[in-house]
Description:
This protein is an alpha+beta fold. It has a single domain, classed as Lipid/polyisoprenoid-binding, YceI-like (Lipocalin, Beta Barrel), CATH 2.40.128.110. It has helices at about 1-20, 75-85; strands at about 25-40, 45-50, 55-60, 60-70, 95-100, 110-120, 125-135, 140-150, 160, 165, 170-180. α1 (about 1-20) packs across α2 (about 75-85).
Amino acid sequence: MKPISRSWYLAALSTALLIASAASAAWTVHGKRSASFKAVGPGGLSIVGTGSDVAVKDKGDAISISVGLNSLKTGIDLRDNHMKEKYLETGKYPTAVLLVDRAKLKLPTSGADIDGRLSLHGVTKPVHVHYSASGSGKQANVAGSLRINMKEFGISVPNYLGVTVKPDVDVNVEFDATDG
């Protein structure tokens, strides 16, 4: 169960960062960087994970947000190891990357939706991201969220002692950025 949650967290983080970066070619992530994912299972089971290994790159007509999957933590070392080694296979696929078309980004915005392409676990798929961006001058705060289905990215649904989480995972990312 726990390894799946991490996988979703990575996808969400990548998406949010990509969206935030797209507003300007020179945006740099600094200070606050938080990403979280939530996977749910039977009987109110909820697995939450967080991480902060995020990088943003301007690719000219697109913004790329990368998330290092080895930085994700759920608070339980054994679950984290299973997530990274058995499900995300971070030895082969160490990052998740979201690409968003720069021309489609709206900044600032109190809430907008954008489509992008998420690469996770060796698979690239279209994703839908909801984001907001606020700030003034050269400072911005960006937050984004998305839901992914781990099966669509070739990731097995985690199962531990017969308990399994749902394949859909919610991902949220928030960060501060500076232009220049």
